[in-house]
Amino acid sequence: MARGSETTREQVIEVARGVLVAEGADAVTMRRLAAELGTSYQVVYSRVGAKPEVLRAVHDLAFENLTAQVDALDPTLGTDEHLHALTAGYLRFAVANPRLFEVMFGSPTGLVRDQALQEVERESFRRCWVTAARAWLDAHRPRRPAGSAAPLAWRLWTATHGIAVLHLAGHGSPSSDVLRDLAGVVELVLVEPLAASTRSS
C-alpha cells in the first residue's frame, strides 16, 4: 500500500469505496482510511478532503460506473432489447452494490446533497435513460410531440428504481422472478410510451 506522498487521490477513493461496500458509510472515517492506506489523516485529507468530500467522490464514482455499464450494453440502442438490458442491468447493479446504491440515492451521514451532487445524478439520468428513451422513440415513434424522451425516460427509471428498492428491502415480486416481472413492467410502459409527454423537457 502506498504511504505518505505516494498515496494518490484515486487510492483514497478506492479504499473508501471498499470500506463502504463492506461495512457501510458509517465505517468510512478518516482514521480508518489512513490506517488502511498506511498513511496519516493529513495525507488522506490533502488528497480528497474530509468525510463529506470522500463520500461525494465515492458517490460520483458509483454514477460513473453505472453510466459506463450502460454504455457497454450489447443490444442495439433504440431496440426493445436495449431497454430491457438497461432496466435489468440497473436492477443487477443495485443488487450487487446495495451500500453504494444507498450512497447514490439515500442520505448517509456526512453526504451533503447539494446542487453539484444533484447535477452528477441528472447527467447520469440523461446519459443512461434519456439517451435510451430518445433512441427508442426515434425508432418506434419518429412522429411524436417535442419533449417526449424525458417523460418516457423518467417512467422507465422510476419503475425500475422502485422495483430495485422494493427488492433490496426484501419484498417479493408477483412471480418471485424479479427480472421477469421488471420486464413485464417495461413492456407495459412501452404500450403507451407517449402517455406522459410534455413540451417542457
From TrEMBL:
Keywords: DNA-binding, Transcription, Transcription regulation. The keyword Magnesium does not apply. It comes from the Bacteria. Pfam families: TetR_C_33 (PF13305), TetR_N (PF00440). Gene3D superfamilies: Homeodomain-like (1.10.10.60), Tetracycline Repressor, domain 2 (1.10.357.10). Residues 6-66 form the HTH tetR-type domain. The keyword Acetylation does not apply. GO terms for molecular function: DNA-binding transcription factor activity; transcription cis-regulatory region binding. Residues 29-48 bind DNA. This is WHG domain-containing protein. It comes from Nocardioides acrostichi.
